[in-house]
From TrEMBL:
Coiled coil: none annotated. Pfam families: UDPG_MGDP_dh (PF00984), UDPG_MGDP_dh_C (PF03720), UDPG_MGDP_dh_N (PF03721). It comes from the Bacteria. This is UDP-glucose 6-dehydrogenase. GO terms for molecular function: NAD binding; UDP-glucose 6-dehydrogenase activity. Residues 317-418 form the UDP-glucose/GDP-mannose dehydrogenase C-terminal domain.
Length: 443
C-alpha cells in the first residue's frame, strides 16, 4: 500500500514512520523546505525516543521519503493523510482549521484516482464533512471518500503507542473507505487490537472526549492533593486507593503543577467552545480549564513561600522546563507560567532541561541556562523540580546540599520521598503529602 502524509510535525512524522514500519510506502510532505532538507539528511526536528532509528531504517529500506511535491507524493496512493497543526485560534479558543482546509484544497487539485482522504489532525466535529465539501466543490468529478483517524500518541512514548495501541478509531463515510483503513492497520489486527469503525462525527468527538476526560482526571487529583495538604492525608495513597478500582483506573492520577503540552490545553478549550456554540455547554470541562490555568500560576507562589516568602534578589535553580519528560515540547508547559512569575518577583532563574532548552531559550528570556542539573545549583537559594526527567530522580543529595546556599527543594513532581529528604537535611516541599513529622512538607 502507498500513502501520503501531509505535515511532518509530531503526529505526521511519527505516524508516517510507523506506517512505513508496517511495510506501507509513505511519502511525507511539508511546505517547509528547511525541514524537508533536514529530514532527507537524517536530522529529526523533534525529540522522540527511538524516532531517529525508525526513520533511518525505513528510509534505507525505501519505504519512507520526504518531499515538498504533493502531486508527486499522491501518485498511486491508497490514502492521503492530513496531519497539520490545529492550534487554538487567537481570541476565541476555537481550533484553527486553516491548515486543514488549505490541505484539502491542495489535495483536490491532484486527485486522479480513488483515494481516501484522512484527517489525522485533531479536529472539531464537522471538520471531515467540510473537508469533503471543499474537495467536492473543487472537483465534483473526483472519486474519493473522507475518513477520520484520530491519533492517541503520548509524547515520549509515541512509537510504542502507535505500534501497540489500546485501540484504533476510524470514522468512515463508506465501506470502501473503511476497507482501505483496515488494510492499513492490518498488522494491528494480528495482535488483536480493537478497531472501532464509526461515523466521521463520532470519531472526531471521540478524540476530544478522550483528551478532555484525561485532563479532568489530572485536575481532579490535583485538587485532591490540595485537600490532602489541608487534612494531613497522602495524595499518593489516595490515588492508589481509588486507582485500584477498575471503574477508575490508575493512570493520570499523579499530582503536579497542571497539564500542558500540545493536546490537552488546546483540545479542552476547543471542545468547550464547540459545546457552547451548539448550546450544550460542558460545565465540568469549563471548570477544568479554569482550574488548570490558575494552578500553573499558583506553583510560583509555592516556590516563593518555600524561600521564606520572597525570592527578590535570590537565585532559583530550576530542573526541567518541558511540559513532561522525554520530549522537547514547550507548548503550554507549566514552566512558561512559573519562571516568568519568579522573575517578576525578583528572582534570578538558572535552569536545565535535557532536551527542551533550545526551544525554551526562545520563550523564557532572561534565564541562565546550565549544562547539566548540577550546573544550576552552585550558590542557588533553592532548587525546584518542574519536570520529572529520570536523571533528576537520583541526584546526589549530599552534593546538591553542599552546592545550595540553603538546603531547600521544591519538588512539584513528587519524585523524592519526604522521609529521605528529611534525613538528608532538606527543607522539602512537595504536593499533597505529609512530612515525616506529621505536618505538611511545605518547606
Amino acid at each position: 500500500m502507498r500513502i501520503a502524509m501531509i505535515g511532518t510535525g509530531y503526529v505526521g512524522l511519527v505516524s508516517g514512520a510507523c506506517f512505513s514500519e508496517f511495510g506501507v510506502h509513505v511519502a511525507c510532505v511539508d511546505k517547509d523546505a528547511g525541514k524537508i532538507e533536514r529530514l532527507k539528511r537524517g536530522e529529526i526536528p523533534i525529540y522522540e525516543p527511538g524516532l531517529d532509528d525508525l526513520v533511518a531504517r525505513n528510509v534505507a529500506a525505501g519505504r519512507l521519503s520526504f518531499t515538498m511535491d504533493l502531486k508527486e507524493a499522491m501518485q498511486g496512493v491508497d490514502a492521503v493523510f492530513i496531519a497539520v497543526g490545529t492550534p487554538s485560534r487567537r481570541g476565541d479558543g476555537h481550533a484553527d482549521l486553516s491548515y486543514v482546509y488549505g490541505a484539502a484544497e491542495e489535495i483536490a487539485r491532484h486527485l486522479d484516482h480513488y483515494t481516501v482522504v484522512v484527517t489525522k489532525s485533531t479536529v472539531p466535529v464537522g471538520t471531515g464533512r467540510e473537508v469533503e465539501a471543499i474537495i467536492r466543490r473543487a472537483r465534483p468529478d473526483a472519486e474519493f471518500d473522507v475518513a477520520s483517524n484520530p491519533e492517541f500518541l503520548r509524547e515520549g512514548s509515541a512509537i510504542g503507542d502507535f505500534m501497540r495501541p489500546d485501540r484504533v478509531v476510524i470514522g468512515a463515510t463508506s465501506d470502501r473507505a473503511g476497507d482501505v483503513m483496515r488494510r492499513l492497520y492490518r498488522p494491528l489486527y494480528l495482535i488483536e487490537t480493537p478497531i472501532v469503525v464509526t461515523s466521521l462525527e463520532t470519531a472526531e468527538l471521540t478524540k476530544y472526549a478522550a483528551n478532555t476526560f484525561l485532563a479532568a482526571k489530572i485536575t481532579f487529583i490535583n485538587e485532591i492533593a490540595d485537600l490532602c495538604e489541608k487534612v494531613g492525608a497522602n495524595v499518593h495513597d489516595v490515588a492508589r486507593g481509588i486507582g485500584l478500582d477498575g471503574r477508575i483506573g490508575r493512570k493520570f492520577l499523579h499530582p503536579g503543577p497542571g497539564y500542558g503540552g500540545s493536546c490537552f490545553p488546546k483540545d479542552t478549550l476547543a471542545l468547550v467552545r464547540t459545546a457552547q456554540q451548539v448550546g450544550s455547554p460542558l460545565r465540568i470541562i469549563e471548570t477544568v480549564v479554569d482550574i488548570n490555568d490558575k494552578r500553573k500560576k499558583q506553583m510560583a507562589e509555592r516556590i516563593i513561600a518555600a524561600c521564606g516568602g520572597s525570592v527578590d534578589g535570590k537565585t532559583v535553580a530550576v530542573l526541567g522546563v518541558a511540559f513532561k519528560p522525554n520530549t522537547d515540547d514547550m507548548r503550554d508547559s507549566p514552566s512558561l507560567d512559573i519562571v516568568p512569575a519568579l522573575q517578576a518577583a525578583g528572582a534570578h532563574v538558572r535552569a536545565f532541561d535535557p532536551a527542551a532548552m533550545h526551544e525554551a531559550e526562545k520563550l523564557l528570556p532572561g534565564v541562565e541556562w546550565a549544562k547539566d542539573a548540577y550546573g544550576t545549583l552552585e550558590g542557588a537559594d533553592c532548587v525546584a523540580i518542574l519536570t520529572e526527567w529520570n536523571e533528576f530522580r537520583a541526584l546526589d543529595l549530599r552534593r546538591v546540599k553542599s552546592m545550595l546556599k540553603r538546603p531547600v527543594m521544591i519538588d512539584l513532581r513528587n519524585i523524592y520521598n519526604p522521609e529521605d529528604m528529611a534525613k538528608a537535611g532538606f527543607t522539602y516541599t512537595s504536593i499533597g503529602r505529609p512530612s515525616p513529622a506529621g505536618g505538611m512538607d511545605r518547606g
